[in-house]
Amino acid sequence: MPKIVDKEKMRNDILDAAMRVFVEKGYHATTVSNVAEAASLAKGTLYIYFKSKDAMTTAIVDRHLAGITEQIAAETLCQTLDAFLEDLQQTMDVPAEQAAFHRVFFEVFGPSFASDEFTDHVAQFFDKLGSYYAKQIAHLQKKGEIAEHHNAVSLGRVLASMLDGVVLHKGLFGISERRHRSMIKDAVTMFGKGLQSPTSSE
Amino acid sequence: MPKIVDKEKMRNDILDAAMRVFVEKGYHATTVSNVAEAASLAKGTLYIYFKSKDAMTTAIVDRHLAGITEQIAAETLCQTLDAFLEDLQQTMDVPAEQAAFHRVFFEVFGPSFASDEFTDHVAQFFDKLGSYYAKQIAHLQKKGEIAEHHNAVSLGRVLASMLDGVVLHKGLFGISERRHRSMIKDAVTMFGKGLQSPTSSE
DNA sequence: TGTTAATATGACCGATCGGTCATTAATCCA
DNA sequence: TGGATTAATGACCGATCGGTCATATTAACA
């Protein structure tokens, strides 16, 4: 008897629309009406699917981080330093649209919005990312590709911070594709030499 | 006959107060009244010294960046790779309060606030910072301390992004002093090996 | 001390925003 | 097709914010 909609799809569609508007106008400058318009819905309808603007925002970030987390989990360990460097390079070489979202991400992440729980949640994500790099590094140390003297755990975490900085700057300052590539290449080259085991070839 | 105040000092005091509140509550969550209270002034008084909240914010960022720019300009060229690495290390090893401001900085820098001119302004600052590193690198390449194959310009710029990422993460996620130090140490060690000229000693 | 011009104040205003809810529209089944 | 139930709507509301301005206060000089 009743009208029935795919609620999960609806939620996702709304988040897609919200993300588009956030990237265009910024989080704080976007009104719920803006999101509704972008989603071709009335404002009231949004509140059927999300209990507040905050909840919508949290959902966007959650979905985004969950996607990357999944990607990381699926990744296999690199068997050579070169493969690992390739991995790092690709992490930084994000499409412009994703870099733009990064910009929103840090706006949302300012003290105005982020609760302690939310902060913890995202902090955990970056710790996970750091652990992933640490695992790769430890593995390559065992294989003699990366110098033993590095502390895999903290090096992994600082790598996560540094890569994030590179991507963020691209999104914030609209660094051109060409320049960004060049920057990445230099960083990766330096990483390679810096990590390399002294007994390794070359 | 009239009452006279030191307008420049007043402006600075107001900016100090605003900065304190921004760090505590976040930029978008801070009202002009909050700033007034923190400065022990009435709201209307603020508008004698700044024509809008935006103008106040821009002034804060300008002052902050000008301070760093000055610092950079005063810096002399490093004569050894170790000295340069020490420089990088100190850049990342910022006091907690400055890292906290970084957090606000990126919130302000979201698309909600930042105009194109403002973005350009800050982009230029980071380019300047990148140029500074590039100059150091080029100098050390001439002295045979850093490998010739690096492109000083783009390596300098990517260094700026990476260091920024490290500092930002400290501010955002409240990474502990101990952990942060450990991360910095690893990064610097890696930088050292990565930059080092193959003909160099050690 | 009284005068006067600069400075400070905070009640007030228009605009806007997140969120609500009475009403309407849509859809499935009998 | 008609009735029952879910889904969608947008006018409306209370709260809040940036910004203004008529008024009060302050301090330098005669």
**Greatest chain-chain interface?**
A-B, 57 and 57 residues
Radius of gyration of chain A: 20 Å
Ranges of chain A with pLDDT <50 over ≥5 residues?
A: none
Strand segment tally of chain A: 0
- Briefly note the structural class of the backbone of chain A: mainly alpha
CA(first)-CA(last) distance of chain A: 73 Å
Helix content of chain A: over 70%
Mean pLDDT of chain A: 94
Q: What is the string of helix and strand elements of chain A?
A: HHHHHHHHH
Topology:
The structure is a homodimer of 202-residue chains.
Chain A: H1 7-25, H2 32-38, H3 43-49, H4 53-74, H5 81-92, H6 96-108, H7 116-142, H8 152-173, H9 177-195
Helix pairs in contact in A: 1-2, 1-4, 4-7, 5-9, 6-8, 7-8
The structure holds a DNA duplex (30 and 30 nucleotides).
Q: Can you give me a brief rundown of this structure?
A:
The structure is a homodimer of 202-residue chains. With 202 residues, chain A is mostly helical.
Give a description of the structure.
- Two copies of one chain form a homodimer.
- Chain A contains nine helices and no strands.
- The model of chain A has no long low-confidence stretch (mean pLDDT 94).
- The longest helix of chain A is centred in the middle third of the chain and has 27 residues, at 116-142.
- With 202 residues, chain A is mostly helical.
- The first copy, chain A, is elongated.
- Chain A has two domains: 1-53, Orthogonal Bundle (Arc Repressor Mutant, subunit A), CATH 1.10.10; 75-195, no CATH class.
- The interface between A and B is large, with 57 and 57 residues.
- The structure holds a DNA duplex (30 and 30 nucleotides).
